[in-house]
Design a protein that fits this description.
Order of helices and strands: HHEHEHEHHEHEHEHEHEEHHEH
Number of strands: 10
Distance between the termini: 50 Å
Largest sheet: 10 strands, mixed
Strand content: 15-25%
Helix content: 40-55%
Shape: globular
Radius of gyration: 20 Å
């Protein structure tokens, strides 16, 4: 039996043994109702694309209207706060990423608590960070980067303070005992422009932001921060292979819901989302966007999220990273 079948069968058997959960699941969602899938980022990004894919599949499966609502701003906190303070009836669900795990340390006085006001539903997919340098850089591979960064100050760009590229650079510094100079930009595109132009030495980039420039011959990929090589760049070694096993970073996307939402509703979401991510067309769509399907149910995702919060809180404190 395939792993996906085991996961789905086990979840179904467990829920079948709890009559009140089974009945509550049957009652949700009510026919003709509307569900808001809140994406705390602008339209068109990878999290938005994945959320729209899942929303479409939920609409088809449940015969209700699942609408993606983009609520960008506040380093992804505005949309998160909206769901955190929503009615706990399953009518609102939130897309989150690694950014939210980092926000716990970056914004200690946030108007909501990720861990108290929201609860995990499912981890859906992850996109590994890709380490890239200009095509004409004297840095030829990742071992060069490790060595050169110990002999001279390198400039590393990112899409902003506290973003995944910044955090990955900080993790590299922590592991390598070096101090690259961080150059924050207002988004990934302008940082890529300056890297191509030679104003920057390196970017620990979101995969989708750099892969087109790699394919176009403008950037050289020197490592991928995942446990295995990526099919889009099969000749690029993992950081583990290149000499830094601790540099494992994926910018993941997942779903959370208001903390007081009944267990039955959370389990129904979790089970259906896992089923959606296992479907062949969604897996292929995710792959085309640079994602790998890495689905985890509510409990397993909850443990993963705690580890991510702890991990990045330590790096943020060590590197003295602030949100501005």
């Amino acid at each position: 039996m395939k792993r996906r079948d085991i996961v789905l069968a086990s979840a179904g058997a467990a829920l079948a043994g709890i009559p009140e959960l089974g009945q509550a699941q049957q009652d949700f969602p009510k026919p003709g109702s509307t569900i808001k899938y809140v994406v705390p980022f602008a339209p068109g990004g990878l999290t938005d694309i994945m959320a729209r894919t899942v929303a479409q599949k939920l609409t088809e499966a449940w015969k209700v209207s699942v609408i993606v609502e983009n609520k960008a701003g506040g380093n992804a906190q505005i949309g998160a706060e909206q769901v955190a303070k929503s009615t706990p009836d399953g009518s609102s669900i939130l897309a989150i990423t690694l950014t939210h795990a980092a926000n716990v340390a970056l914004f200690p006085n946030a108007p909501y608590s990720l861990t108290r006001d929201l609860r995990p539903v499912a981890l859906l997919a992850g996109s590994p960070m890709l380490v890239v340098v200009p095509i004409n850089s004297p840095i030829k591979d990742f071992k060069d980067l490790i060595a050169v960064s110990k002999t001279r100050q390198l400039n590393a760009g990112s899409s902003g303070n506290g973003t995944p590229p910044h955090l990955t650079m900080a993790l590299f510094n922590d592991l390598n005992k070096t101090q690259m100079t961080h150059i924050p930009y207002r988004g990934g595109a302008p940082s890529m422009t300056d890297l191509i132009g030679g104003q920057l030495d390196v970017i620990f980039s979101n995969f989708p932001e750099s892969i087109a420039h790699v394919k176009g011959g403008k950037l050289r990929p020197i490592a991928i921060c995942s446990l295995s090589r990526h099919p889009a760049v099969p000749d690029v070694p993992t950081a583990f292979e290149a000499g830094m096993p601790g540099l494992f970073v994926e910018n993941w996307t997942a779903a959370m819901i208001q903390a007081k939402t009944p267990d039955a509703i959370v389990e129904k979401y979790s089970r259906e989302m896992i089923k959606i991510m296992y479907s062949a067309d969604v897996e292929e769509r995710a792959k085309q966007q640079g994602f790998r399907v890495t689905q985890k149910g509510s409990d397993e995702f909850g443990r993963f999220l705690k580890n991510e919060i702890d991990r990045w809180s330590r790096i943020i404190k060590t590197a003295k990273i602030t949100a501005t």
